[in-house]
Amino acid sequence: MNTLDLLYRIYRARYSLDVLQRRLDTPVNVVFLGEHSDTERMLQWLGELHPQAQDIPIEQREWPVEKEDWAKATACVIHLGSELPSLELLREKAEQIPDSVPCLWVVENVETKMPEITAGTLPQVQTLDPLNPAPKFKRILPRAFPGLALRLARDYSALRYSYARQMIRRTATRNARMALASTLAAPPIPGLNTIWRFFATTGETIAITATQIHLCLLMAALHFRSLDFFDRMGELWPVIGGSFGWRRVARLLVRMVPGLGWLSKGTLAYSGTFLIGESSRLYYEYGQPNQEELLREIKRRSQDEMVKRLQDVDSDLAEPEDETDS
Fold first, then answer.
1. Phi, psi of 271 (to 5 degrees)
2. 54 touches 226 (CB < 8 A)
C-alpha cells in the first residue's frame, strides 16, 4: 500500500465526502419571510450570488404564505421588523408554519426583552443590532440550519467568507485541544498506556492531518471546486508534508520548554491549522498566495486568533462553575 492510498483510507475513516457532496447537490428553498424591505436587506447581508449557482436557493415572501407553498420550503427565516410583536400575534405566526420546516426568527432591536418561553408555544427569537446586523446574522444562520450551511455559503459571497472563517477557527481549536490531550501522561493501565503512547506519537499527527485535509476540501467545495480526493492531491500534498514538519517542531518545543511544552504544542497545532485553512481559502478565492507579504499577514492573523482563544480559556477558568451544570 503506497502513501497516497494510506492517507486516503485514513481520511475516509474519519470523514465522508459523499455526505458533503449530497449537501451540495440537494435542491434547497429557504424562505425569507417578512416585509419586502427587510427580506431584501437580509439578502444583501449574504452578499452577491455566485455566478456558478445553478438556481436561487432563497425565496422572498410576505405574510401570509399558502399552506401548499410550505410544502416546497426547506427552511424559513422570519424577520419580525424592529419591534417584537405581541405574544398572541407571534404565536399566531408560528402556528402558520408547519413543524417540518425549521425556522430562524430575528428582530432588529437589541433592547428587546424576550418573553419567557414555554416549550412548544413560542419561537426563540434572535436579536440583531440595527446599526450592524449583518455579522451576527451570518453567524447564526449556519447554526440554525447546519445541513444547509455549506450550500448557502457556497452560493453567497459574504456568507461564504464568514462561514469559511468559522470553520477555520473551529478546526484550529479542535486540533489544538487534540494536541494538548496528546501531552498528558499515559495512564498506568497495561494495554491502555500503549495505545495512549501511540496516539501521542503518531495517532495525533494522523488525526490532525485528516482534519486539515478535510478543512482544505471544505474550502474547495465552498468555491465550486471538485470534491474528489485525488483531484485535489496537488493542493493537499503541502498540507500532508507540512504536518510532519509541525510535529517535529512541536516535539522539540516539548523537550526544550519543560512544564510549558504542552502550551507550545497546542499553539503550534492551532497556528498550523489556521495557516493551512486561511491559505486554502485565499488560494481558491484569489489564486495561489505565494507573496511573502500575504503569508506574513496570514501568520499574524493566526497568532492573534490563538491569543484570543487563550484569553477566552483563561476567563472561563476564572469564572466559578455553576453547580447546576452537568
1. -65, -40
2. no
Other beta carbons within 10 angstroms of residue 189's beta carbon come to 10
Helices (H), 15-53: 17-25, 36-46
Cβ–Cβ under 8 Å, residues 70 and 101: yes
126 in Cβ contact with 243 (< 8 Å): no
Give one DSSP letter per residue of 252-291, joined into a string.
HHHHHSTTTHHHHHHHHHHHHHHHHHHHHHHHHHHS----
Model pLDDT, residue 325: 41
Pair 128, 106: CB distance under 8 Å: yes
Burial class (CB in 10 A: 0-12, 13-18, 19+), 95: exposed
Residue 179 has a CB neighbour count (10 Å cut-off) of 27
CA distance linking residue 176 with residue 202, whole number of Å? 16
Nearest CA-CA partner of 39 in 126, 91, 124, 106: 106
Q: Which part of the chain is CATH 3.40.50?
A: 27-151
Distance CA 215, CA 132 (A): 29
Q: Assess contact for 170 and 212: CB atoms under 8 A.
A: no
How far, rounded to the nearest angstrom, does the alpha carbon of residue 4 sit from its chain's CA centroid? 27
Taking only the tens place, the pLDDT of each residue in 35-82 is 999 999 999 999 999 988 878 899 999 988 888 889 889 999 999 999
- Rounded to two decimals, what is the model's pTM? 0.76
Average pLDDT, the chain: 78
Asked if the 27-151 domain carries CATH number 3.40.50, the reply is yes
